[in-house]
Every structure is written in C-alpha cells, then in structure tokens.
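Project standup — Tuesday

K.O.: blocked on the structure for the chain from last sprint. Re-posting the sequence here as requested.
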Amino acid sequence: MALEVGGKSIPLDEEGYLENLSDWTPEVAAALATAEDVTLTDEHWEILNFLREYYEEYQIAPAVRVLTKAVGKRLGADKGNSKYLYSLFPYGPGKQACKYAGLPKPTGCV
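H.V.: unblocked you, prediction finished:
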C-alpha cells in the first residue's frame, strides 16, 4: 500500500501505518485522515503533537490508558479522558491518532 502526497509515494503497511517514520509530515497526517473521512482540527493537532513528543521521549507509542493519563496531566482533565479522545478519534485514540501522527501501532492495540 502507498499514499500519494505532493507527488511522492509514501509506503504504508497492511494496516495503513507509515513504514518509515521519517516520511511523516503534517501533509501526510492530513492525507491519512482524509482517507478515513476525518478533517484534522486544532484539537486533533494538539493530540497528534503530544503523541509525537511522547514518542520522541520514550520511543514507544502509548496505549490508550497511558495516553489518556498523560494527556490529562499535560492538557487538563477536560481533554485527558476517553470520551474526549474518542470524540476526536472514533476508531480508537491509540490506533487512529498514532496512525495520523506517523507512529507505529501502539502495543496492546488489536
């Protein structure tokens, strides 16, 4: 599988995650979201940027429970809860947000 962005072919794995993390750009994130009928808002970007920072620091994509707790610490309780995160990423905040953020699928996600 591949995603066409700006005339460049970006290789994806069988689940639609980037094969090469270095291929990620905001345009790639938007194209991945558009492919799933999602328009990225500032609220989405806040979570995506948080995930990328988390991954850079810990070299792992957080599972949903860890993500929820970490978002709550950094962005406040109103955003650090499952209801808010699922409102942004209905297919699962771990899987869907990590995909758009250009990160590997979180461990423990089915």
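K.O.: great, moving the ticket to review. The domain at 2-100 is CATH 1.10.10.370 (Arc Repressor Mutant, subunit A). The longest strand covers residues 2-5.
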